[in-house]
Amino acid sequence: xxIKPEEISNIIRKKINDYxxxxxxxxxxxxxxxxDGIVKVFGLNNCMAGELIDFxxxxxxxxxxxxxxNVGCVLLGGESHIKEGTVAKRTGRPVSIGVGDEIIxxxxxxxxxxxxxxxxxxxxxxxxxxxxxxxVMVRKSVxxxxxxxxxxxxxMVPIGRGQRELIxxxxxxxxxxxxxxxxxxxxxxxxxxxxxAIGQKSSSVAGVVETLKKHGAMDYTIIVSATASxxxxxxxxxxxxxxxxxxxxxxxxxxxxxxxxxxxxxxQSYRAMSLLLRRSPGREAYPGDVFYLHSRLLERAAKLDDxxxxxxITALPIIETLAGDVSAYVPTNVISIxxxxxxxxxxLFFSGQRPAINAGLSVSRVGGSAQIKAMKKLSGRIRIDLAxxxxxxxxxxxxxxxxxxxxxxxxxxxRVLEILKQPQYNPIAVEKQVVMLYAAVHGxxxxxxNNDVNSFASGLVKHISDNHNDILEAIKTQKDLSKELxxxxxxxxxxxxxxxxx
Length: 502
Hints:
Elements: H1 5-18, E1 28-35, E2 38-42, E3 51-54, E4 60-66, E5 71-75, E6 87-94, E7 96-99, E8 107-108, E9 125-128, H2 151-156, E10 166-169, H3 175-184, E11 191-200, H4 202-214, E12 221-227, H5 232-250, E13 255-261, H6 263-276, H7 290-298, E14 312-320, H8 329-337, E15 340-344, H9 346-350, E16 363-364, H10 373-396, H11 404-419, H12 430-441, H13 453-467, H14 469-478, H15 483-501
Parallel strand pairs: 8-12, 10-14, 10-15, 11-12, 11-13, 13-14
Antiparallel strand pairs: 1-2, 1-6, 2-5, 3-4, 3-6, 4-5, 7-9, 15-16
Helix pairs in contact: 5-6, 7-8, 10-11, 10-12, 11-12, 12-13, 12-14, 13-14, 13-15
C-alpha cells in the first residue's frame, strides 16, 4: 500500500487548523497549618475575603483572614482530610447556595445539601450567602400586616411585611412557639416561610418539622438546619444561607417570612471561629465586629417598592437572655438593629400567662401602619387597660377597701389579661380577633367569671361564625368598624350571653 505525501500533509494541515489551544490557569496554595477546623494557606496572594477555597476530594473552606504571609480559612466539613501540604485552589467566587422553586418544602443544610433523605432539588440559580442589603431608594414603607394569629401580638405588637421584629426572652419561655404559630398562620396567605435552626439539638429540629407537617405548613416552608453537632463555620453560615434563599423569592416579587432561631448561638459560633483565627477578643470575649455580624444580616429584610417587584422579607430573629438580662452584649446589639421586640418573661410564663408577653417592654416601631383599622381602634384601649391594671394591682394586694371605679378597672384588666391567653398551635384569624377584643375592651366580659372568659370568647366566635357570618365577612373585607357593624357585634354578643348564662 502506497501512502501519498500529499495525503499525509493534508491530514496534518487539517489537524493544525482544527487545533484549539485551551489553557487553564489556577491559583493554588499549600496548607501550612491545620487544626480545629481552621487552616492556614500559603500562596493565595489574590484571594478575596469570603471566597470559596477548594481543597480537593469535595472539601471546601471559606477565606476569613487575609494576612500578609498566609490566608486563614475555616473548613466547611471534611477536617480529617486536610493535612500539611494539601493543595488549596481558588474558585474565584464567594460562598453561595443553589436555590430554586423546588426548594420549598425541603430541609437543607447551609450549603444547600438535602437533609430529608430525598433527591437533590432543581437549582435555578446560585445566590451568594453574603449579599448587599437593598438601598433606601428601592424600599417602601411597611404598610401591610403580617398576621401572626396570636391575639396579644396582632393587637399590641403588630408585625408588618418587611419588618424585623425581635423575639427575646429566657430559655423555655415560648420564643420558638411564637415563631412556629406565625408560620402556621401563613397558610393560604401566599407567604413563603423559612425556619433557620442554628445550634439546636437534632431532636428539637425534628420536633419543629413534625409540628409543621401536622398543620400542613411544610407545603410553603423551607428548613435550613445547622445543628449543635455541626461545626462552628456551618452554624455561622446558616442564617446567611437562609437569607439568600429568602432573597431569591423576594426579588421575584413574593412575600417571605424568615425565622432565625437563634442569633445568640450564631454569635457564639462566630466567637468560636474568631478566637481560633486568633482575632482579638473584646467584650464577653466576642470579636469587635459582632454588631456588623447581625446588622448586615438583618438589614437584608425589607419591603421593596412596586418598581422592583414589591416583594418583602420579614425577619423574626430570636435572642435568648440569661436571667432576663437584656443589657448583655448581643441582646443590646440586636435590639438596636430591629424595628421592635416581643419580650417574653419567665414570671408570666410560669404564672400561666401564655404567650408570656410583657406588654410594657414589648414594642413595635412600625405600630398601627401594620394593622387593619378595626384592630387599630381597639388595640389602644388594651394597653391602657393593662397599664392601669398593673398599677392598681400592686395597691390592691395590701387588702385595703377599694372604691367601685377601682374595682371595675381591676376586673377589666383581669378580663383583658385572660382573653390574651391562647393555646399553642391555635392561631386565630384577624376578623375573629376583632370580635373577641371588642367584647373585652367594651366591658362585655365584666359579668363573666374570670375562669370562663376563654370558653366564652371561643363560644362567641363560633356563635357568630355559625349564625352571623356576615359580620366576620364584613370585618374581613372592609377592615374597619362602621357604626352599623358595631351595632351588629353588640347584638350578637348580647344574644350569645343569654345562651351562655343558661
